[in-house]
Amino acid sequence: MRSTARFVAILSLASVALLTGFPPLSAQEGGRLGADLTPLGAEKAGNAAGTIPSWDGGITKPPAGYVPGKHYVDPYAADKALFTITAKNLDQYAAQLSEGHKAMLRTYGTFKMNVYPTRRSASVPQRVYDATSQNLTRAKLVNGGNGVQGAVGGPAFPLPKSGVEVIWNHMLRYRGDTAGRWVMQAAPTRGGQFTPVQFDEETQFLYHLPGMTAEKLGNRILYFKQTVTAPARLAGGILLVHEMGDQVKQPRDAWVYNPGQRRVRRAPQVAYDNPGTAADNMRTSDQLDMFNGAPDRYEWKLVGKREIYVPYNSYRLQDPKLKYKDIITPLHINPDHARYELHRVWIVDATLRAGERHTYKRRTFYLDEDSWQIVLMDQYDNRDQLWRVSEGHAMNFYNVPGTWTAAEVHTDLQAGRYLIMGLFNEGRVHDFNLKRTEADFQPDALRREGVR
User: Where are the domains of the chain?
Assistant: First the structure.
C-alpha cells in the first residue's frame, strides 16, 4: 500500500499526466478504502499546496442552531472569500478552471467566482460506506457498460477503472432513502424576467433502501413522481418514472397524467435529449440531476483528476432570507450568492457514438471525488462549439447525511439565457422521512391524484 505522503507527491508531480489519463486504481487495492482513501474512494489526504485539506469524515452532525424541518444552517457562514475570479484575472487561475467557467467569465462581464476556503463536508451514513466496500467485490458492468450487476446501497465502483464506472457512481450515489422535494424552476429572459414553475417531487431510492439486496432489487433502482403545481396553465400535470438500471435491456417506464384530458399515458419520450418538463427547451431529459438515464449513446473516456474551482457548500442558495428575485438575475444567477471552492474532481469525456443521435455531440463531466456528485458539465453542439455550461451547486444535507444540490443551473451561452432548477429558499425544505409505499408510485396513483 502506498503511503499517503507518497501518493500526494505522485499526484502533484503527475498533474499533467492526469489530464491524458491517470492509470485507474485496481480493485485489488480495496484495502485502501478507509485507509489512505475515504470510504467512498476519494483521496483522504489534502493536496501538496495545502489548499485542499484532508478529509476528516465530513459533516457528521448538524451544526448548532439547526432545527429539523427548517432551512439549513450554513456551517461555514463565517468564512470570508479568499479572492474573486473575474474576466480580468482569469489567466491567473486558468489551470484550475473548467472550460465552461472560462467561457462564462469571457462572455459575461458581470459573472464572477467568489472563492472560499475548501471544506470537505461530504458524508453519508455508515451503512452506505459498508455497502460501498462490499461493492468492490460484487459489482460489475454488464451489457457493454449499460448496466451494473451485483451492486446495492452505495457507489458501485469506488476505485473506478473507466469513465462509465464514474458516471454510474454519480447515478448510484446516496441522497437518502425516500425524499420529498418542493422546488422551483425558472428560465429567465435575457432581461431577467421569469415565471416560477413549482414542482412537488417524490423519489424512493430503491437501490438504497435498508435491507435491500441486489437480487431483490432486480433492474429497478428508483421511483420518481413529479407534479406541477404552478403556474395555473401548467398545474396538474404529473410525471411518473420507474428508473431502470440497464435501460438498454429494459427502457425506463414512464407515464404522464394530462389534466386537460384526465388521462394517464405512457411517456417513452422522457429520456435522452427530449426536452425537460416545462424547461422552455433549456435542458434535456437526461440533464435532470445533472445526468440520468442510459449511457449507451456515448463513448465514455476517463480523463483523470484535476484540482478545479467548483460550486460547493452552497447553503446560501437555500437561505430563506433570500427571495427568488435575489438569486435570479439577467444572464446568470447572482454571483454574490454562489460559493466556489477548490476540489479534486474526476473528469469524464462523453463523445457521441457513431450512428447515434443526441443534441449534445460531446459532454465533459466534473465529479466531486468526495461524493460522486456531478458539480460541473460542459456540453458541445454538433459544430464542436461549447454550447451549455451546467453547475450543480452542491451541499451536504446533513440531516440525512448526503450530498445533493441546492440548485442546478444550466447556462446557454449561445442564447444568452439560463435555466435554474431545484430552488427551495422560498418554499418547504426537503422531507427525507417521507413515508411512501410501492403503490404510491404506480400509474393508478396518478389517476387518483390527477385533479386540476
Answer: 1-452
Helix/strand number for the chain, H first, E second: 9, 17
Cell numbers that stand for 393 in this block:
451547486
pLDDT band per the 50, 70, 90 thresholds, residue 190: very high
Give the distance, in angstroms, between the CA of residue 151 and the centroid of all CA atoms in the same chain.
Answer: 20
**In this structure, how many other beta carbons lie within 10 angstroms of the beta carbon of residue 264?**
18
Cα dihedral 37/38/40/42 (nearest 10): -60
Output the pLDDT for position 30. 73
Q: What would the pLDDT profile of 382-396 be if each residue is shown by its tens digit?
A: 999 999 999 999 999
Query: How far is the CA of 311 from the CAs of 120, 403, 406, 409, in angstroms?
Result: 12, 12, 10, 11
Which neighbouring-strand residues pair with 238?
227, 257
Contact 309, 83 (CB under 8 A): no
Q: Which residues of 26-36 are buried (b: 16+ CB within 10 A; e: fewer)?
A: eeeebebbeeb
Residue pair 242/223 in contact (Cβ under 8 Å)? The answer is yes
Per-residue pLDDT of 72-91, as tens digits, reads 999 999 999 999 999 999 99
pLDDT mean over 240-244: 97
Judge whether 155 and 173 are in contact, CB under 8 Å.
Answer: yes
Quote the pLDDT of residue 28.
58
Q: What DSSP string describes 254-291?
A: EEEEETTTTEEEE-TTSSTTSBPTTSTTSSBGGGTTSS
With a cut of 50, say whether residue 67 has pLDDT above it: yes
Separation CA 15–CA 5 (nearest Å): 16
CA-based torsion, 13, 19, 23, 28: positive or negative: positive
- Who's near 386: CB < 8 A, 6+ residues apart? 99, 100, 103, 378, 379, 380, 413
Query: What grid cell was written down for 451?
Result: 385533479
CATH of domain 1-452: 2.50.20.10
Residue 266 has pLDDT above 80, yes or no: yes
pLDDT of residue 451: 54
> To the nearest whole number, what is the mean pLDDT of the chain?
93
